[in-house]
């Protein structure tokens, strides 16, 4: 065995498959609590990833990791809200995160920079991270996943490592989910995305300067994300069925649809494209099971919603934070494992479903913004404690009803197993 692998064949408290935002957040927060954590990622960081516009919920786990000031120092572009050309409103409308009253901004970033920063922080906090390490399978004993088998680029053979619990944070690769769980596809959100980058873009005016632009066209919608000075990430999302029925390639579809935009076309009028096109099938799904005997899923490995309103990274990192707190308690009190993971899974699915149901409703573009605000209120605040506009902003910020997910309470489970046995 290569000397680079010495020491990592030991047993760990937790093995995490994937060092993206979900895996790195869970790794950092568990390591900070003194847990022995191994992270395996098949890529070498910094690595490219789509998902560049963040929402305020993301700021919470980053604060826990101690990254708030580092993100600012990195010069990531602050994102205060969005400009929306959508629905039956004749003119574009805006939302400001400040309306939600909790966290007024998030960031737009290049994911290569962001993800490397979070993974480096996990290392600083004590996690062992092996890059270019591809997990091939789990090791099972008596029906429980007790470890993983993986290969490391440039190293011969397969390595086996054991851990008390295995977290699958492998994104859409769903390494463990594929083996142990069915997946439920959400039929209304079967889209395909095609995107590229432009330099020399104009910015939105005044207070909208750093907003994400979300612009609907007949066959789909565009994102325009100011990731860095004049550079925009521009993507087109359309139903997979529409793309399939079209005689155009995805690239040609992108170009012909840009020509039909209003706002976006203005921003791009003096810009030049700086890279080729990339595309992804971004079908929304939820795994049937989020946990099993010895394993648990987080981030895209558990569920993926849709790029509309950019909830992916916030969801992944908030769930990872929750999972770190829960797994830490499971290691202390192994008897609570099943009930604690069940509590995690229900809180995560409920939170995810509220966003999914809202996004599905928002895709109906025949309505006005008042309808979308009311829809958010019906989903998150049926007793109408807030103004519907506030409910809308809190929902799309990832901050509405996030308590059960973000601050899991296991005290009753721990009390049950800690109580002295009756004579
Ligand atoms: C078109 C599109 C646009 C999007 N736009 C946004 C947006 O604007 N904002 C937003 O927040 N989200 C957006 N998302 C979603 C966002 O990309 C994801 O939700 C987010 O990256 C999830 O993080 P994660 O850590 O769960 O997974 P990932 O970031 O995918 O990380 C998973 C990691 O696992 C590793 N891995 C995979 N297989 C293995 C293996 N076998 N062994 C070891 N390692 C492995 C990968 O290398 C990767 O580093 C978008 C998604 C799409 C498809």
Bound molecules: flavin-adenine dinucleotide
Tally the helices: what do you get? 14
Estimated radius of gyration: 22 Å
Q: How many domains make up the 3D coordinates? A: 1
The CATH architecture name reads: 3-Layer(bba) Sandwich
Q: Which fold name fills CATH's third level, the topology?
A: FAD/NAD(P)-binding domain
Mean pLDDT: 94
Topology:
Layout: E1 11-17, H1 21-32, E2 37-41, H2 59-64, H3 68-73, E3 77-79, E4 81-85, E5 93-96, E6 106-108, H4 111-124, E7 128-131, E8 133-141, E9 144-152, E10 159-168, H5 175-180, E11 183-199, E12 212-217, E13 220-228, E14 231-239, H6 240-245, H7 250-258, H8 263-268, E15 272-273, E16 278-287, E17 291-292, E18 295-297, E19 303-304, H9 312-332, H10 337-362, H11 369-380, H12 388-397, H13 403-406, H14 411-418
Parallel strand pairs: 1-2, 1-10, 2-7, 4-12, 10-18
Antiparallel strand pairs: 3-6, 4-5, 8-9, 9-10, 11-14, 11-15, 11-16, 12-13, 13-14, 16-19, 17-18
Helix pairs in contact: 1-4, 1-9, 9-10, 10-11, 11-12
This protein binds flavin-adenine dinucleotide.
How does this model look, in words?
- With 423 residues, this protein is of the alpha+beta class.
- The protein has a single domain, classed as FAD/NAD(P)-binding domain, CATH 3.50.50.60.
- 35% of the residues lie in helices and 28% in strands.
- The protein contains 14 helices and 19 strands.
- The strands form three sheets. Strands 4, 5, 11, 12, 13, 14, 15, 16 and 19 form a nine-stranded mixed β-sheet that branches.
- Strand 17 (291-292) and strand 18 (295-297) form a beta hairpin.
- Helix 1 (21-32) runs parallel beside helix 9 and helix 10 (337-362) runs antiparallel to helix 11 (369-380).
- The radius of gyration is 22 Å and the shape is globular.
- The mean pLDDT is 94.
- The protein binds flavin-adenine dinucleotide.
- Flavin-adenine dinucleotide (FAD) binds at residues 17-23, 40-43, 49-54, 134-135, 169-171, 173, 175, 193, 235, 280, 282, 299-301, 307, 310, 312-314, 316.
């Amino acid at each position: 065995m290569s000397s680079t692998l010495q020491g990592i064949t030991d047993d760990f408290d937790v093995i995490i498959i994937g060092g993206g935002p979900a895996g790195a957040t869970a790794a950092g927060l568990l390591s900070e609590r003194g847990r022995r954590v191994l992270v395996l990622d098949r890529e070498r960081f910094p690595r490219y990833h789509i998902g560049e516009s963040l929402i305020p919920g993301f700021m919470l786990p980053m604060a826990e990791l101690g990254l708030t000031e580092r993100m600012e120092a990195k010069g990531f572009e602050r994102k205060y809200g969005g400009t929306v050309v959508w629905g039956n409103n004749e003119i574009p409308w805006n939302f400001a995160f400040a309306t939600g009253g909790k966290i007024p901004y998030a960031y737009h970033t290049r994911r290569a920079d962001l993800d490397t920063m979070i993974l480096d922080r996990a290392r600083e906090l004590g996690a062992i991270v092996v890059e270019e390490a591809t997990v091939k399978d789990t090791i099972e004993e008596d029906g429980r996943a007790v470890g993983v088998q993986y290969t490391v680029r440039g190293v011969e053979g397969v390595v086996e490592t054991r851990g008390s619990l295995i977290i699958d944070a492998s994104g859409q690769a769903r390494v463990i989910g594929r083996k142990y769980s069915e997946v439920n596809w959400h039929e209304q959100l079967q889209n395909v995305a095609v995107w590229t980058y432009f330099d020399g873009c104009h910015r939105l005016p005044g207070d909208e300067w750093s907003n994400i632009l979300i612009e609907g066209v007949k066959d789909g919608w565009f994102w325009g994300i100011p990731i860095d000075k004049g550079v925009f990430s521009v993507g087109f999302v359309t139903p997979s069925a529409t793309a399939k029925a079209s005689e155009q390639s995805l690239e040609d579809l992108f170009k012909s649809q840009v020509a039909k935009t209003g706002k976006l076309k203005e921003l791009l009028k003096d810009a030049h494209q700086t890279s080729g096109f990339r595309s992804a099938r971004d079908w929304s799904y939820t795994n049937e099971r989020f946990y099993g005997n010895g394993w648990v899923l987080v981030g895209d490995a558990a569920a993926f919603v849709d790029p509309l309103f950019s909830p992916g990274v916030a969801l992944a990192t908030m769930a990872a934070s929750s999972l770190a707190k829960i797994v830490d308690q499971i290691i202390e009190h192994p008897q609570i494992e099943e009930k604690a993971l069940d509590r995690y899974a229900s809180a995560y699915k409920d939170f995810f479903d509220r966003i999914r149901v809202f996004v599905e409703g928002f895709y109906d573009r025949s309505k006005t913004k008042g309808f979308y605000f009311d829809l958010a209120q019906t989903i998150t605040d049926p007793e109408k404690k807030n103004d519907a506009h506030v409910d809308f902003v809190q929902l799309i910020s990832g901050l509405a009803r996030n308590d059960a997910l973000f601050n899991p309470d296991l005290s009753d489970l721990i009390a049950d197993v800690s109580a002295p046995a009756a004579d």
